[in-house]
Each structure stands twice: as C-alpha cells, then as structure tokens.
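for the writeup, i need someone to sanity check this before i put it in the appendix. the sequnce is what the collaborator sent (i think, or maybe the updated version? ugh). structure was predicted straight from it, no edits. if anything looks off just tell me and ill rerun, i have time this weekend
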Amino acid sequence: MTAKQWQVFDLLASTYGNNTMRITTRQTIQFHGVLKSGLRAVIQGINNSLLSTLAACGDVNRNVLAPPTPAYTKAREQVYADCKKVALALVPQTKAYHSIWIDGVQLKLDDAENKNFADPLYGKAICRENSKSPS
C-alpha cells in the first residue's frame, strides 16, 4: 500500500465510517462504522485507489500472504512468486463483483455468457430471479 492509497483509505474511513481503520494480522485493513448506504462508495474508492475488496470475505478464500521479510533473498522471491500463483488461481472469475460494486449495472441473467457461467474454482451458480425465500 502506498502513502497515497493510505490517504484514500483514511478519507474513506472519515467520510463513510467512524473515522477509524484497523490493520489486521492478515495484512488487511478493516473499516468500522460504514453504513450500508456508504458501502458502494467505499468499495469504489478502494477500487479507484488501485486496491480491491474482491474476495475479501464471505465464502471465498482469504488473502494469500507473502510477508516482505527478509526483503531480498532467493527464498523470498520464490515464496512471493508462489503466493502470486495461488492468489491468481483463487480469484473469482464472476463479473458480479464489478457489476454490483463498481459499475452499478445489473448483470443480464439471460445473456448466454452469464446464464452458462461457471467459475473454475466454485462451479456454476444457481440463480433464481423470481424465487421466494423459504419461510
């Protein structure tokens, strides 16, 4: 994370949250006090700073870590390369994240690409547009 990215996060925390951020043990940042009405703006701000919340929580993988110390060794280079491979293999391929949080445009479920989409890792999602929730 660069200093400019930190400044963006600080602004987002004070604008949409309760003016606090916490660095986690998994090298991530948590915002606190963000209301649902400000969630899209926070995610868009993070994305605009060239960072992402894609697959940050829920039923997907957690972030893959490659601590930077020792900073300059052959072993660290290999660990970092392996971490990048694992992280890229685990990234969800769905367009839903950007559709919901960045573009704000609903995916058309009847489009062939979306209707037949199956994530390489998670498989095919079952969508029922007009289904009722169980009571």
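Residues 1-53 form one domain. The beta strands are 21-23, 29-31, 118-119, 123-124.
thx in advance!!
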